[in-house]
Amino acid sequence: MNARRVRVPSLLEDPGIRRVRTPERRFLFAVPPLGDGTAGSVTANNAVAAELVRRGHKVAWTGHRASLEPRIRPGSRLYSAVEEDFERRLHGLHGDWLDLRGLAALRFLWEDLLVPLGHAMLPGVEKAIDRFRPDAVIADQLALAAPVAARRRELPWATSAATSAEFTRPLAAFPRAEEWIRELIADFQLDHGIEDLLDLRFSDHLVLVFTAAGLIGDTSFFPGHFAFVGPAPERPAPRAFPWDDLDGRPAVLVTLGAPDGPVRDRFFRVAAEAVRGVDVQAVFETDPGALPDPPPNVLVREQVPRHKLLERVSAVVCDGAHDTVCASLAQGLPLVVAPVRDDQPVIAGQVESAGAGVRVRHARARADELRTALTAVLKEDPYRAAAERVRTSIASAGGVAEAADRLEKLA
Amino acid sequence: MNDDLAEVVRILTDVLGEDFLPDVEIGPETTFTGALALESIEFAAFAARLRARYGDRADLPAFVAGLDLDELLGLTVGDVADHLAGAAR
């Protein structure tokens, strides 16, 4: 099922069933500038774009040129779509957002970033559509402008979701906050003349979800246009590593995406205490200067070749960044997750619900709590078995090829 | 009601750890999201401890489910104590 048949095949002319080549299609990817939050989205979309190009289709991008250009294939067609006034404020808004946590960050994200950004991007996205003339638009899940532009131009559009967070009702405990977001999404559409209201985070044509279905649990009740295609493959980053220092004891990778600062440094100090005297080797991915006197079983490296290292370790301690969680689970590794912000608490909850790890706190983490959690995921078989189940769900997902198949049918 | 407040403060201090609160005096005006920056796992632990202490009338999840985003962000220790006192009547 590589492509749709554009004509009913003639029985007399061609009795065999053959693969039908899809004629060349044009796809426009829309990505909003959301700092590091964009990185995962671009990784997944890059992989799909490359597959579409390999199949002979044309792709283009629209979004914030300065943040998008360095992350996509050099020479890609890119239409700038953020109004200048808003672009000037973008850096400050990112900073304000990153200073917030929890529901305060959520409110800021929607009220001060996503909705104004949607307004600021809409004219540019429409211009990109008018110039590139795509057959379908692929909208990052948080790019509000792209679905509205596609709907106003009567084009099919797909949602590209780079994390699992939105698929388990992350705000179920706060139904009025959930409703508030839906109202913002409704108002955004009404502001631009759309009265048939949709949740712009979930296309009614195609939702590509780049995650491990095993993290979400039962995905069978999702409608058929939700495609859980698996996490985007990581591009291995070759880096030097003292492999000979790994002496055969169970190894643990401790890695945080969090920016430098006292909370991060504290977490690594606590983690060092947690593994002191335990029969493991821990690899800490952080600035060695921040941990001057580590225990003998801790190896501190500024950066690690994550892809290769995950093949050697037995468990991972992380902050719940979606890419790290998926990369670990793709190796069947159980996790200890100390989430910080945004989708991380949701993903930590998903890991725990899947049985593939333990959630611990971050800012006030304690060495004994961390040691208990780590010992549990290393020693108790159910965690490994659950992580293995998630690994299977990743291995059996359709991946980039299925994403491209689905998009070909859409366009 | 003052008893409830003292008890809420005690449970919260216990969940967070006294050594983490040298600069924060927890009182009725203290917000969960602000000065304490409660993490979701701590909030869950706090809710479980309240329930263990007060039984079904301390249904914190049901209480917060009725709050809008601004109310959630402004939720104070005193609000929870008041809720417990109100639920007792």
From TrEMBL, chain A:
InterPro entries: EryCIII-like_C (IPR010610), Glycosyltransferase_28 (IPR050426), UDP_glucos_trans (IPR002213)
Pfam families, per the entry: EryCIII-like_C
Domain Erythromycin biosynthesis protein CIII-like C-terminal intervals: 291-410
Protein name in the entry: Glycosyltransferase
Source organism of this protein record: Actinomadura livida
Automatic annotation (TrEMBL), chain B:
Domain Carrier: 1-88
Species annotation: Actinomadura livida
Signal peptide: none
InterPro entries noted in UniProt: ACP-like_sf (IPR036736), PP-bd_ACP (IPR009081)
Protein name per Swiss-Prot or TrEMBL: Acyl carrier protein
